[in-house]
Specification:
Layout: H1 2-15, H2 39-42, E1 50-51, E2 54-55, H3 61-76, H4 78-102, H5 109-116, H6 136-141, H7 156-174, H8 177-186, H9 188-198, H10 210-227, E3 247-254, E4 258-259, H11 260-266, H12 271-277, E5 285-286, E6 289-296, H13 303-313, E7 321-324, H14 331-338, H15 342-348, E8 362-365
Helix pairs in contact: 3-10, 4-7, 5-10, 7-8, 8-9, 8-10, 11-12
Length: 371
């Protein structure tokens, strides 16, 4: 019996799959097994390596070890790299254009890849938020609106403008893009104190918090992989890449708080689409005041007028009430219960009379009589 179990264990071990990236591995991250180079082959970096035109001293054994570590960790997580590549056209292409207009190094685009994997709702344990993982104090300092209604750290265009201003200021302070990125990660005061205490301005010779020591090498690894994905076995076709949002930015002056379902209706789309295009909007209402909103291209010209007309049709009196649909409810029953017109109830929630409502669904109701 014991011998039989030993044989089964040995057979199971021989049949176990190899790690992704080994010569005989499967291809969970794109590419057939024979197309994926081994991990050892992938980290044999040749030729000069630079960041924002600043040379990385790969000839130093300790520097090469740090670089190889981050390359290995990035390549092991092949699904994450595929998501980087799939999101690249949507975010990295417009960011490259933004960097070029400002005369800033193209390599800075890889900072946001490492910070958030190009996700608007990324939140760190320390409270950093959005594409560039900015703290609220820093975001406000560089012009972002951050409050209970709006958090522009989640807006790609707004947060990128603020982050690039911050990185440029850090470069002017420290005289190096390498040190600027270190300061972006740990804070300029902390980096300045470390430089003063250690008498060293070479990033690669500074002892910094471990997260900051790894930060630049993570950026370099992302640059290596995203610059030459096929070299590392990521063979995505153009059809695999997520397309850019077909939307335009429109400036509007919202005369009052408006439920996002009404905003979506004015934009000729639906609630979720409007929220996805504008992740900076927190909650279910667009707050009174001026906004830069992304709307579907086809609606860009007519959207401001439609939004204003929708706002004018909302009753001015009363506090908006959120109602949760119960079993047995219908739109007409709810309108009667709150003493509002059915047509108003439909408009406030971007619905039509044939729309089926379900228990648990929330509806917004202006004015009326609270039962």
């Amino acid at each position: 019996m014991v011998r039989f179990l030993i044989v089964l264990i040995l057979v199971g071990m021989s049949a176990a799959p190899s790690p992704a990236g080994s010569a005989d591995a499967g291809a969970p991250g794109g590419g057939s097994p024979e197309q994926i180079p081994s991990l050892i082959q992938s980290i044999r970096l040749e030729g000069p390596l630079t960041f924002c035109g600043e040379r990385v001293p790969l000839k130093r054994r300790e520097v090469r070890e740090r670089m190889e570590k981050e390359m290995l960790l990035a390549l092991w997580n092949r699904p994450q790299v595929i998501l980087w590549l799939k999101r690249s056209r949507r975010y990295l292409e417009p960011l490259s254009a933004m960097l070029a207009r400002r005369g800033l190094p193209a390599d800075l685009k890889y900072v946001t890849v490492v910070e958030s994997a190009l996700r608007p709702h990324a939140v760190s344990s320390k409270g950093a938020v959005g594409f560039w993982q900015m703290m609220a104090f820093t975001g406000r300092k560089y012009g972002l609106t951050i409050n209970s209604r709006i958090d522009e750290r989640r807006s790609f265009s707004a947060s990128s403008r603020a982050a690039l201003k911050y990185l440029k200021a850090l470069y002017e302070q420290f005289g190096s893009w390498t040190l600027a990125c270190a300061a972006y990660n740990m804070g300029e005061r902390g980096l300045a104190a470390a430089i003063d205490a250690q008498g060293q301005t070479d990033f690669y010779r500074l002892y910094l918090p471990l997260e900051t020591q790894r930060f630049l090498f993570k950026i370099l690894a992302a640059k290596q992989i995203l610059t030459s994905p096929r070299k590392f076995g990521f063979n995505l076709s153009p059809a695999d890449i997520y397309p850019p949002f077909r939307a335009k930015t429109v400036e509007v002056d919202c005369p009052r708080d408006i439920h996002m379902s009404v905003v979506a209706e004015a934009a000729g789309t639906y609630y979720k689409r409007m929220k996805d295009l504008n992740p900076q909007i927190r909650g279910a209402f667009l707050a009174k005041g001026k906004h830069r909103l992304m709307v579907p291209e086809a609606a860009a010209r007519t959207f401001p007028g439609k939004l204003l007309r929708a706002a004018q049709q909302i009753p001015a009196e009363g506090v908006p009430h959120v109602y949760r649909v119960k079993s047995g409810d219908s739109l007409s029953i709810i309108a009667q219960r709150f003493n509002v017109r059915l047509s108003d109830l439909l408009r406030w929630n971007g619905l039509n009379a044939r729309k089926v409502i379900v228990p648990g669904q929330t509806l917004i109701i202006y004015g009326g009589k609270i039962p």
